[in-house]
């Protein structure tokens, strides 16, 4: 069974940074293309980034390109999202997922506010 748990969300001021983690289990993480998505209050899911198998060049949505960085540690079955230059509009619940599945698992709340 696929199990995904995102963590690292917090309340942060505009311009601040956070690093999210996503612990994965129940599948062969190192052989799986992964993604980050988020859901802002009252909005639908927004795709943020995809990282391939052993991929050093993740792809990003225009809204976060240059500010967010996705990485993975296959030895720890963990996906990361480094977020810099956070803005109030980045306030959302953040999830990781497999690109081949709608399963997102447990998300983590990021709130950007003074």
Task: Determine the mean pLDDT.
Answer: 96
Beta-strand proportion: over 45%
Task: Note the overall shape.
Answer: globular
Secondary structure: number of strands: 10
Report Rg: 13 Å
SSE arrangement, N to C: EEEEEEEEEE
List the total number of helices: 0
Share of helical residues: under 10%
The biggest beta sheet reads: 6 strands, mixed
Instruction: Give the strand line-up of the largest sheet.
Output: 2-10-9-4-5-6
SSE-based structural type: mainly beta
The termini sit apart by: 40 Å
- Which stretches of 5+ consecutive residues score pLDDT under 50? none
Commentary on this structure:
With 114 residues, this protein is mainly beta. The strands form 2 sheets. The chain has a 6-stranded mixed sheet with strand order 2-10-9-4-5-6, with no helix packed on it. Strands 1-3-8-7 form a 4-stranded antiparallel sheet, with no helix packed on it. Strand 5 and strand 6 form a beta hairpin. The chain is globular. The protein starts with a strand and ends with a strand. The mean pLDDT is 96.
Keywords, separated by commas or semicolons:
single chain, 114 residues, mainly beta, six-stranded mixed sheet, four-stranded antiparallel sheet
Quick gist of this model?
The protein is mainly beta and 114 residues long. The chain has strands spanning 3-7, 11-12, 18-25, 34-39, 45-51, 59-60, 68-73, 78-83, 92-98, 108-112.
């Amino acid at each position: 069974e696929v199990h995904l748990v995102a963590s690292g969300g917090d309340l942060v001021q505009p311009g601040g940074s956070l690093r999210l983690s996503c612990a994965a289990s129940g599948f062969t993480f190192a052989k799986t293309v992964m993604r980050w998505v988020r859901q802002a209050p009252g909005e639908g899911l927004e795709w943020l980034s995809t990282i391939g198998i052993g991929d050093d060049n993740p792809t990003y949505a225009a809204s976060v390109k240059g500010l967010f960085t996705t990485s993975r540690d296959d030895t720890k079955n963990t996906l990361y999202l480094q977020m810099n230059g956070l803005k109030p509009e980045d306030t959302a619940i953040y999830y990781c997922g497999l690109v081949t599945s709608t399963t997102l698992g447990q998300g983590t709340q990021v709130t950007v506010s003074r």
